[in-house]
UniProtKB/TrEMBL annotation:
This is Pyrimidine reductase, riboflavin biosynthesis. Pathway: Cofactor biosynthesis; riboflavin biosynthesis. SUPFAM superfamilies: Dihydrofolate reductase-like. It holds the Pfam family RibD_C. It comes from the Bacteria. It comes from Klenkia soli. The keyword Oxidoreductase applies. Transmembrane segments: none annotated.
Amino acid sequence: MDMVFPAPARSVAGDDLLDAYPWPEEARWVRAMMVTTLDGAAAGRDGLSGSISSAVDGEVFDAVRRLADAVLVGAGTLRAEEYGPMRASAADAERRAAAGQAPAPRLAVVSGSLDLPWALPVWADSTLTPLVLTGPSPDPAALTTAREHAEVVFLADLEPASLLAALTDRGLRRVVCEGGPSLLEAVVAADLLDEADITLSPVFAGTSTTPRTGGPDEVARLDLVHLITAEGYVMARYVRPGHR
Ligand SMILES: NC(=O)c1ccc[n+]([C@@H]2O[C@H](COP(=O)([O-])OP(=O)(O)OC[C@H]3O[C@@H](n4cnc5c(N)ncnc54)[C@H](OP(=O)(O)O)[C@@H]3O)[C@@H](O)[C@H]2O)c1
């Protein structure tokens, strides 16, 4: 892969890529990781992001989440995508321990319904038991099932401020929100996003494949930090103004 901005261009791979996505020393930092098509779709015709992604996007995806404390996703994403177990390599576990972090990122799923794909190995095979963030009074039968697979956290509401406070309360301050579009939209609308790591995929997929979402009242502008390109994909890192 080539980092073409900032100049001069240079090639990046492996841990260089990890270094290209540093976690600032803020009390909390929320980054988004998403892939989008040329026509703004968040998934291909099969309703999955994998069909608009690629191995090079996958490498960046890994670099963005490797040193996170929490991977935050909406229930819609977990229902659509095959989320694998959250683990870290031995080298990353050491790196994490040196930084005072838990041995692997912790999955946090936002769901009011608790209608989640409980057969996925992400529940039982992750290093840390996943969290499920839900409302104050979920369906009792669904709650019983959820408790067999995850640590359930009850919140007064599922607004982004409440979700992120629940993570911070558990010491999870480096948060990567991997979508989907509905959850990300809510985080942006609440003005709680610090960084956007966006991959532009060189395909048109039809924008009808993107779930309909609302939007922030005002456009939220970020600063470009870098552009990496490989095989026609463009991986951009943007951060809040003033945090470069
Ligand atoms: N391109 C990408 O990088 C990317 C990334 C992720 C996902 N995707 C794609 O996006 C699609 C799923 O996205 P989505 O937007 O439908 O789902 P989503 O944002 O992952 O999840 C939405 C669900 O989250 C729960 N939720 C609770 N509080 C919420 C809040 N404040 N804001 C938003 N959601 C809240 C609700 O679950 P309950 O219904 O359980 O109450 C809601 O139905 C799939 O096609 C997936 O493949 C693409």
